[in-house]
Amino acid sequence: MRLPGRLSAAIDVLTDVETRKRPVSEALKAWGLNNRFAGAGDRAAIGNLVYDALRRRASHAALMGSDSPRALVLAVAIRDWNEDPAALSDSFAADSHAPEPLTADELARVVGQLPDDTAPHILADVPEWIAPSIERAFGDNWIAEGQDMAGRPSLDLRTNILKASRDRVVKSLDRFHPRLTSISPVGVTMPAGARDARTPNVTTDEGYLKGWFEVQDQGSQIVAALGNAQPGEQVLDLCAGAGGKTLALAAAMGNKGQIFAYDSDRNRLAPIYDRLKRNGARNVQVRAPHPGALDDLAGKMDRVVIDAPCTGTGTWRRRPDTKWKLSPELLAQRTAEQAAILVEGARYLKPGGTLVYITCSILPEENDDQIVAFLKNHPDFTSLPPAELWQAAFGAAIHPDVETAQSGIALTPRLTGTDGFYFNALRRAS
Ligand SMILES: C[S@@+](CC[C@H](N)C(=O)[O-])C[C@H]1O[C@@H](n2cnc3c(N)ncnc32)[C@H](O)[C@@H]1O
């Protein structure tokens, strides 16, 4: 397919997403099944167009004076993919699979600039109602933070040090030109390409099948490392999901001690069994959810890790559709769950133990605010100093801007080149 046909397909996919309220991944898959002539390169390009349209939906729509799928996709082609507007329009006329040529109004708008009085949430490409929260989190830098959250993410891998060295992983993926991550000592990264670049399919690599590495954003690797789980400890991973953090903790502990991996959702937990086997993680006991599943652990854990259910605002680069679906109701639901899980997690700690709280959110309501509320009712807990945790994990001084008011650590695409994550470690008095 040539670019005009790909643009047309992206408009169809976005229309499908909007009219049928479908997740983007589902709409892209359906398009591929209905258009089997399209190759992997076409599907990747169409996916990039759709995701780019959603990443900068607000500013594309403001510039074009419309948020229709056509307006958004044309804006991506010209603003993000640097196509020449007149040449693009001419190429439409010569291609039977192309969208209609650009109108005079579209041509004039797409080469213009956003006016000086453009609302800040449009410049930041975030929903208007959530802008005050993002401003509270980042102060004067909040628009720049929003803009970086509208970029493309890198593909990051975590070396499974139980089975391989980072050098070995780099060598096995040589053909994708991997680089070392900037902070995580076990990470490997492949920067996002431009335009129609395809994301490397690393999960068919023999190194992946042998358990040498896992796909894991560097931010997720960093918070797992800050958790500071030590060989021989008793650790409860209370929201283990498919086990991304569990596997990182097992490797950090050198398979020594015991991790109890639990999740209240059986379906989310299901993939963990295969992943543990592939990774050679032998110190993990999976506890399936049933009443009283964790009762025997009360008061006994050295460390309880809460990778809390959250709005996922830190992952907007990867799932930009969720940015526009976020609602005050969903945020309220997540914050209520987080408050309850923090109290629940504290129950399993022994005196002197550490409660590790993690979210993949950038919103203070889910981060520092939760810590303030928890500490108010749990005066026997104190936050551990971020600079010391960072030094212990990475042997380097912490970037000053990642420290939050409540001794938390907030990672972002702009500050650390990672997804957005929040971390806070709370020590219980002995
Ligand atoms: C952010 S995800 C965990 C991701 C996972 N730790 C990883 O690294 O791949 C949050 C998880 O919390 C689980 N969850 C939600 N409420 C819970 C609760 N009350 N107790 C335990 N798990 C819960 C969800 O099912 C979800 O799998």
From TrEMBL:
Start and end residues of each SAM-dependent MTase RsmB/NOP-type domain: 145-429
Pfam families on file: Methyltr_RsmB-F
Domain of life of the native organism: Bacteria
Alphabetized CDD domains for the sequence: AdoMet_MTases (cd02440)
InterPro entries, sorted: MeTrfase_RsmB-F_NOP2_cat (IPR049560), MeTrfase_RsmB-F_NOP2_dom (IPR001678), RCMT (IPR023267), SAM-dependent_MTases_sf (IPR029063)
GO molecular function: methyltransferase activity
Record keywords: Methyltransferase, RNA-binding, S-adenosyl-L-methionine, Transferase
GO BP: methylation
Name of the protein this chain belongs to: RsmB/NOP family class I SAM-dependent RNA methyltransferase
